[in-house]
Amino acid sequence: MTEKLYDLIIIGGGPAGLTAAIYAQRAKLNCLLLEKVGLGGQIALSDVIENYPGVGSISGAELMAKFEEHAKNFGAQIEFAEVEKVEDKGAYKTVKTTNGELKTKAVLIATGAKPRKLGVPGEAVFAGKGVSYCATCDGFFFRGKDVVVVGGGDTAVKEAVYLSKIVRQVTIIHRRNQLRAEKIIQEKAFAQPNIKFIWDSVVTEIYGQEKVAGVKVKNVKTNVVTDLKTDGVFIFIGITPNADFIDVAKDKNGFIITDKFMATSMPGVYAAGDVRDTPLRQVATAVGDAAIAINSIGTFFS
Hints:
This protein has 302 residues and is of the alpha/beta class. The chain has helices at 15-26, 60-73, 135-138, 154-164, 183-191, 283-301, and strands at residues 5-11, 31-35, 77-80, 83-88, 93-97, 100-109, 113-115, 131-132, 146-150, 169-173, 195-198, 201-208, 212-219, 225-229, 232-235, 239-241, 269-271. Helices cover 23% and strands 29% of the residues.
């Protein structure tokens, strides 16, 4: 990486980051997008997206490929490196990466979030040996077997429906007595004959020997613990923001707090998408956040 002063560095190559890159190119900003691993973000792992306007039903990977192509067609500069720290130097910001240090006038954080862990015995031990956080990544390995899905939100139920087409039996374990997912997603799950539900319950332990053999399930109302044999455990209980590398105001869960212009507590630093404190985390909202952020950054320069 060459030593130069950028107008803007975008950190993260998911929906928000790629949208921001498109808008930044149109605004003629000297911009660089940094991505740690691969473009697309968590949504690229989603089997089906049906609520992004104008595209109908599409896989996450296909949709993100379109985002990437659009950004590159506008001439977006993209480099792969992990960001370790962002510091405010007054007239500019330093972005310390695994490939060296960069200088920029403004920063947009679009690093998204990663799956939240259950934190129960056996979870870490059997990660990759029956414990998974991505049905589209690992569902194939459980063809014809029985699996558990932990969670009741959009992601959990969508992934359970996806798994139901591959595995013999899906059991959704949810701590409440009803799902939190969108009604249309719930209807699809309830219509699948090989999806069953365990309500008002949590997984307290994942056990096995070389691989997962079962889970301990506790009813939160009766405190009764039962044993459920299973070949795999898919965990979808929320997300944790990827924001440890920067010291700005955050909520109690670590999500970055912004104003309506997507500005953070550090002057010249903005945030967009799943990494920020927002009531809804969808591709559509990430795109909107990014558009607002780049417009705000343009104002920042004027």
